[in-house]
Fold this sequence. Notes:
Layout: E1 2-4, E2 9-12, H1 16-28, E3 33-36, E4 63-64, E5 67-68, H2 89-104, E6 110-113, E7 116-120, E8 123-126, E9 132-134, E10 140-143, E11 160-161, E12 166-169, E13 183-186, H3 190-201, E14 209-212, E15 218-221, H4 229-245, H5 249-258, E16 262-264, E17 278-279, H6 281-287, E18 292-294, E19 301-303, E20 306-309, E21 312-315, E22 321-324, E23 339-340, E24 343-345, H7 354-367, H8 375-381, H9 391-409, H10 412-418, H11 436-459
Parallel strand pairs: 1-9, 2-3, 2-10, 3-6, 10-24, 11-19, 12-22, 13-14, 13-22, 14-18, 15-17
Antiparallel strand pairs: 4-5, 7-8, 8-9, 15-16, 19-20, 20-21, 23-24
Amino acid sequence: xxxxxxxxxxxxxxxxxxxxxxxxxxxxxxxxxxxxxxxxxxxxxxxxxxxxxxxxxxxxxxxxxxxxxxxxxxxxxxxxxxxxxxxxxxxxxxxxxxxxxxxxxxxxxxxxxxxxxxxxxxxxxxxxxxxxxxxxxxxxxxxxxxxxxxxxxxxxxxxxxxxxxxxxxxxxxxxxxxxxxxxxxxxxxxxxxxxxxxxxxxxxxxxxxxxxxxxxxxxxxxxxxxxxxxxxxxxxxxxxxxxxxxxxxxxxxxxxxxxxxxxxxxxxxxxxxxxxxxxxxxxxxxxxxxxxxxxxxxxxxxxxxxxxxxxxxxxxxxxxxxxxxxxxxxxxxxxxxxxxxxxxxxxxxxxxxxxxxxxxxxxxxxxxxxxxxxxxxxxxxxxxxxxxxxxxxxxxxxxxxxxxxxxxxxxxxxxxxxxxxxxxxxxxxxxxxxxxxxxxxxxxxxxxxxxxxxxxxxxxxxxxxxx
Length: 467
């Protein structure tokens, strides 16, 4: 027997994307929403994240538009004193629970079904009780899972594990029963850098860490990505001017490195990975202390005392703990129209800020009329900017993100709303006193943006859109 549930929207996924959409939607229209997630609660992958993880970006840029994560607080001590605070895993989970209970459920217009699997055809089932539910044919499906990351806690290592070896996901690192003489970190991205920084903070010497880094990553200087209009627009202007001057994607990133926007761990190696996480300079200095870096591609097999690659093996300690940080992370699907018949596909609309994009989609859905009649107009306004992990894809992301920003700013009501929400990094809040730095940055942006977007398109291998 299938139980009928009344709803205008069925949101699949209660992570950052689904929560941001729902928050903006119910704030601007009187509709009923059902949210389903295969996990027991809201917060998406944060419920399974490793315990020492923090947001890589400022808390103010994350979450839902109605509720500021972290209250806009600055860090009062430590190496990032004066920068916007970055929420911990428990803080993020608590935040989303608060949003669910005090906003969504309290509105009387939102229901949450945890530990449920969406089966398609407007039907979902409890993974605990087996009960089945169905929403009406008129209910629109909202897919909040397109970018859902694969994380080490839920993905097996992408290599064979031999007997009598110690291979653990990064989540288990703080729960080791006994110390090892060597720690082998497999992975090139943010999870791997977090694991190394954490190990060093626990007193593990750099000589006891081996870092298997199949690709070197480009990182973004965290001090540049802050909720300060002068600094943020200054960084944006630097990016535009660097793009205009660049004759290749490699040259673009080197020019950005010269103005302290991008960073690489080893300045003798040209990175090929550009997913764009932020990194602090103090973290960069710690990562540079790791001298045992293995660049032989991906591990094929872990054996006691050895890592096996396609071209041979590398010796490790017999008691080494191999830490799995090599899950793919965010998905990188091709950009598709946000609105298609019966379906809303949540996607980023601006480079590097997924919560911003999904909130805008919720606002546009609420204010441009429900149903499919206005989908063409909504798709004209909301232009997806897909993520990527290469330098070329990063350039493409910034090109498409620039087009999306231009389209959104052309809508007076959207521009006014965006200027009032903290998760929009490119805003000048009401009452901001202004500064010579901000005036200069905005003037530089106005001059550079048209030519820079053309160059981003060229470097990203796309044909620029007309207009």
